[in-house]
Amino acid sequence: QVKLVVSGGGLVQHGGSLELSCVASGFPFSKFLMEWHRQAPGKEREVVASISSASGTINYIPSVKGRFSVSRDNGKNTLYLQMKSLKPDDTGVYYCHAPTPNFWGQGTQVTVSS
After folding, report:
1. What is the pLDDT of residue 19?
2. Residue 99 gets which letter from DSSP?
3. Exposed e or buried b for every residue in 73-111, given b needs 16+ CB within 10 A?
């Protein structure tokens, strides 16, 4: 059974930090590109960051570049998103996603207060 279990969300003040984790099971995590997505209230879901299977290629959307850092530990089947200098616009539900097999985690709420 495929699972992507996301944790680490919460409430943080403007300028604060959070780290999200996504633990994968039931599929060969190390072989796949992974993504973090978020969905802000009233907006469409958007990809925030992506990381290739061996971490050789990493991409971010412009609004988070320099503040967010995506990484993975293939030995632990875990994807991470380190978020710093958080802004109220970063508020939303964050999901991990394996695009090729189209597997989604359950999402975790991140709320940044002003």
Report:
1. 98
2. T
3. eeeebbbbbebeebeeebbbbbbbbbeeeebbbebbebe
Q: What is the DSSP string of 26-88?
A: SS-GGGS-EEEEEE-TTS--EEEEEE-TTS--EEE-TTTTTTEEEEEETTTTEEEEEE-S--G
Q: State the residue for tokens 């959307």.
A: 61
Q: Is the pLDDT of residue 86 over 90?
A: yes
Q: Which of 90, 96, 92 is nearest to 72 (CA)?
A: 96
- Portion of the chain with pLDDT greater than 90, in percent: 97
CA distance linking residue 49 with residue 97, whole number of Å: 10
CB atoms under 10 Å from CB of 22, counted, come to: 28
Pairing of strands 34-39, 3-7: unpaired
Cα 12 from Cα 16, distance rounded (Å): 6
Q: Determine whether 32 is exposed, middle or buried from the number of CB atoms within 10 Å of its CB (0-12, 13-18, 19+).
A: middle
